Amino acid sequence: MTCPAARGRGQGVGLQPHLLILRASCVTVTDPVLFKSERTGDDSTLRLCGAWCIDNLPEMETTLAQLEQRGRYTRLDFSDIQTMDLSGAWLLRNWLERSRAGGRMAVVGKRPSHFAFLDELLEQKGGKTPPQQSADSSLRDAVVWVGRGAVQQAKQSRDAIGFFGRITMTWLRAMRSAHHLRLPSIARHIYETGIQAIPIVSLIAFLISVIVAYLGAQQLRQFGAEIFTVDLVAISVLREMGVLLTSIIVAGRSGSAFAAEIGVMRLNDEIDALESMGVDIYEVLVVPRLIGLLIALPLLTIVADAMGLAGGALLSSLLLDISLSQFIPRVQDALAPTTFWAGLVKAPVFAMLIALVGTYRGMQVRDSSRELGRLTTVAVVQSIFLVIFADAIFAIVFVELDF
Amino acid sequence: MSSNPQTSSDQTPIISVRNLVNRFGQQVVHDGVNLDVMPGEVLGIVGGSGSGKSVLLRTMLGLQRPWSGQVLIEGRDITQMSGAELLSVKRRYGVTFQHGALFSSLSVAENIQLPIREYFDASPAALEALTELRLRMVGLPVDAGAKLPSQLSGGMVKRAALARALALDPALLFLDEPTAGLDPISAAGFDELVTYLHRSLKLTIVMITHDLDTLLATCSRVAVLVDRKIVVDTLDGIMKNPHPWIQEYFHGPRSRAAQVSANGASASEVAR
């Protein structure tokens, strides 16, 4: 027999369900036993009990799995169930549907009230779930995978070329009139990508040249050639370190900002809003960033060069007893007239790569915040890669040209 | 052993807001707001733009601490609760946000499964079954589960958000402007859905809405936020309230159509 307390509770659900569901919503009900079985002669009764609600989800699952293995019951009794919510009712109902296919069970006691709701729901929306399609052959999958990849690559290349073309056209038009040039916007981007980056760029250039000078001095001391530390610092900073480190920092700072800003505008439909007003989005969003960075990055490179030399000078005077009045003439001797320009001429190229990759990836953002994150990351990684790759080409070309 | 449902007067409220004051800097949004949400009712919250409807909702959800006053859920103050207690309360209510707030990088099915996965160790089969149930409950086709939120129409987004809110079988549902931005037919469909779920699952529903049709179709009581206070009454009662904003709201030009279409008692009340 069922105990009176459980019975009262079970019926209470029917009477005043909202209160009891909230109270008894079974965070506190820890009764993992969800069924009992009784066997009398040929009859076997399955007595469901306890709390069939989503809090007991794992227990419900194991129970149903056990019941599946136990084989058949002839009778089914719902009356001991204390609480039940829709999730429990749904899982139980699904199981019943399945097991009924095997052998019939006679139902004892009242069917849970949620079953009526579920019946209604299934009737209303027209029957069963469409069966899942079985897995396709792996060969076809492979072909589809290759084909899809190829088509996507082709599309991307076409998009990239289109993007570059539109920028060129927009730029040519912008060059003809001040209105299309968007000077305030360019100024803002010079400020954000250039002036605001001065502290971090200076600090990193300073530290790197200190490291180079320190390690260089250790090695050169073995030959008694400490004085060449100055040459080492001056040439490495001006030719390579200054511009390369600055570009990498800017790619991390501004390349990601470009992609994220434009990407968020895409997600908010701001880009569509601009286009619907007849504003050329390339003119207001892409070209100002490009021009801004083209101006800012060379200037930042000069700052980095200066800070790098300062770092070298400081370390030389502290470690090598080379005073500033010796350092400066030594630097002038060490440098060919082209050394400084060999570094600086790379800056606009790197700026262009960073700005193009950043804005292009931003424009590609569609639909979701995950895309935004992914494409921002892609923008940074790709622009850093392209900067280093371009630097390698420059190195070879300059050596061949004896520049 | 059957008895009639008790009248609302001698039930304990699920949520009661006591002397709530909310202010941002100099701006006072709520100044002594009292509100009881009774189990099993559909309470509509209306108010002008900027009257603090969303702030009230956020305070009730525990997303925002009130300046002063209390929010009691089942008689316990949520500002005094420990993290674990608050979690067990949150677990029992479902919320839909104004713009759906579906996670854009997850499919609809994954959105629905997220709270279930978060709390329980469920097998893929059970997750799939429960997802199917939620989708059916809100009247979405089962194959909508595989879609991304960006592929859904506005009405489907609202339904998917409701499906996610129902994921943990809540007893209490908060809906923030559930029909905003829907065409009248979809909105009416959504109203019907809310009424259906309320009736068959005995859910308690708190709903912010601007939509008079929704208000008339679904709500048993209405709370109006005016002058930093709140006025709560039945629909008929509130329509007779002399406050000018309330009069304007229910009897202004844009309300006529809603009332013409509303049936019986409330329409005849208006006529007087």
TrEMBL record, chain B:
Residues 15-251 form the ABC transporter domain. InterPro entries: AAA+_ATPase (IPR003593), ABC_transporter-like_ATP-bd (IPR003439), P-loop_NTPase (IPR027417). The keyword Membrane does not apply. The keyword Glycoprotein does not apply. It comes from the Bacteria. Keywords: ATP-binding, Nucleotide-binding, Transport. One of its GO terms (molecular function) is ATP binding. This is ATP-binding cassette domain-containing protein. It comes from Steroidobacter gossypii.
